[in-house]
Amino acid sequence: MWHLGTNTQVDGGPSMSEAVLGIDIGGTNMAGGLISSEGEILHKVEIPTEASRGSEAVFSNIKSVAEELLRWADLKGVPVSRIGISTAGQVDPSAGTILYATDTFPGWTGFPLKQRLQPEFGLEVFVENDALAAGWGEKCFGLAQDAHDFIMLTLGTGVGGAVFARGKLLSGSANLAGLIGHMTVDPYGRPCNCGGRGCVEQYASATAIAKTALQSVGLPSDSVLRGKISRAGSALSAKDVFDAARLGDGRAQEVVAEAALYLGAAIGSLINLLNPELVVLSGGVSRAGDYFLRQVHAAAQQYSTAVAFENVDIRISQFMEDCGVMGAGAVAYTSGIHRLDPH
């Protein structure tokens, strides 16, 4: 674990010398946490991101989360040193600027987040991509603390990824390495919003799992999945599909098996290419637990070499819905993600 400074006791809680703010900006909600140097969330706030209202609305909400956390810290006498932000989109970590965000975040591309946020609170701000931050949180506080070579996969609305070698992030020539969600698993497959086809994101993300289930036809009248579709309509979630599969619905089980197969094939290829000792799954889909993990594990084994697979552990993050907040906190504690020198 990462420990900073001389420890003091706060309200009978974890020993610590300082805390940081970790704020994770998702497409639907943003969550913020006051995180101790022991990696414990002392206080947490969650509000809607309101991304559709534009960058200024998102920025205003970030400030609101930070203000609430700082109020709580002041009340409890907890010193706060830095702010870490994890956000969807491609990030320039040195400038703290959003290089690119999809249309779900109108106006977010080019937003100078660090430059705007730092003067508001007088605290140093560090900004990173959400998937990369999640991986760094796992390295600092989670399952990867003792791992040198590991891969992080975030399974939510899309599929994100991060690759770590010798304990540092493999960032690539333009800081874009780790776009695992856009690995091609079927060159003739579903079109992807990245412009490609057959990306793993189109099969194994929460969005894809729900979409595949919604396209089911000829479901019997007593089908559990049919009942869930009737009630939820287009709001059907991946959780609905997993729940139906666990209850024995045949079609739901087929949808889950397909997602596990494509995700496992991608992981198997990554194992062959990178020879990691650990693969960590996080995000909404990972909450399906062992039921899904067993199928992913079997597919990964099928699509990797026996020698490489023998030395890898595939696990689900212990942080679950707090993965983004923990990642943002880790980014703050270490003043950014430690990267492999590309030169």
Detailed description of the structure:
This protein is α/β, with parallel strands linked by helices. A five-stranded mixed sheet has the order 5-4-3-6-9. Strand 3 and strand 4 form a beta hairpin. Helix 3 crosses helix 11. The radius of gyration is 20 Å and the shape is globular. The two termini are 28 Å apart.
Describe, in short, the structure shown.
37% of the residues lie in helices and 21% in strands. It is of the alpha/beta class and 343 residues long.
Layout: helices, strands, pairs:
Blueprint: E1 8-9, E2 15-16, E3 19-25, E4 29-36, E5 41-48, H1 55-76, E6 80-87, E7 90-92, E8 97-100, H2 113-121, E9 124-129, H3 130-141, E10 150-155, E11 159-165, E12 168-169, H4 201-204, H5 206-214, H6 224-232, H7 238-246, H8 250-274, E13 278-282, H9 290-302, H10 306-310, E14 313-316, H11 323-333
